Amino acid sequence: MQRSNNMLSLAGLVLNLRQSLLRIESRLLQAAGLDRHLTPALVVNGSHVLPQLVPQLEEEMPEGDQQRADQPPDLLDSIFWMAAPKKRRTIEVNRTRRRSDSKLLKVKTNIEPCLECGHLKQKHTLCSFCYEKVRKETGKIRAQINAMEGGPLRAPATDTVVLYEGEVPQEQDKGKRIVELTRKRPAWFS
Amino acid sequence: MAARFSCKIWQHCLVGTSVHNFHFQVGHTWRRTKVKLIEYAKKGDTDEKAMKMASFWLTEKDLVPKLFKVLAPRFETQTDGFTRLAQLPRRENLDKAKMAVLEYKGNPFPPLYPVRKVNELTLINQLLKAYREERAQQRLTSASLVSSCVD
Q1: What's the farthest any 2 CA atoms get from each other in chain B?
Q2: Model pTM greater than 0.95?
Q3: Which of B60, B62, B68, B75 to mutate to test the interface with A (most CBs of A within 10 A)?
């Protein structure tokens, strides 16, 4: 019995010795830095670029395992390096940005009154009021043409001339299709 | 070009006038097409290429004889300047699109640009005329005075 106890204690002692020796060996290797060849050379994770910012002495080995398993870097690690405002923007700064010259409305210098009707128009465009008159009149003429033709795809291969009430076709209107409107000629339509 | 298939727009085009364009740039493209059509039509009815072009671009076939018989002779003497592209104010809709009007010159419809008439018989014109005559007379009398002094 004693002998078995002795034997067990001896085995335990040997085991303990062996374990302690292994531990010492691994510690020495770590200190020397010779066990690094096991970890991959190019391993980049946000958390490992600047180790002095966050103490990760105990986390290194399990993190190394993670990288070897080729998992993507966590958001929780990389949010430490995202851009964020440092200080509140003061109302003065905000005002100067919001009211800067590029953001204000531009003054238009190309507005002038139409010589015919007096409404305002831009220099390079037609007057909207005058054009509206032209458009309405053209619509009426087209309606009359449609009524004369009677249907689609019946346009004759001749010129047209528009005559209002009481107008007689002139010499230059010979051979043209005459479109008669039962209205007075508008003053602006020469 | 998409315009070839928007036949309604070409109908307006050839009936003689105005097209409401969606965008000013589109107006420029259509203007070039219209000008090209006229140039082809000038070659004559019998020219195969011209007839092919006309029948392709004009989806309404009753306008093909109109192109050759009406529009080509109208612009016989001109080398360019068959069309008029005028810019309109932006559309009233939410999109505020740039609009333009395109027309062939010599159409029977009312003119886009107002024809300015100068009436000699208005009061202001009569007064101005009288003023001009008076000034001319004054210059003559002062000139004669100066010459008499010198003499």
Answers
A1: 84
A2: no
A3: B62
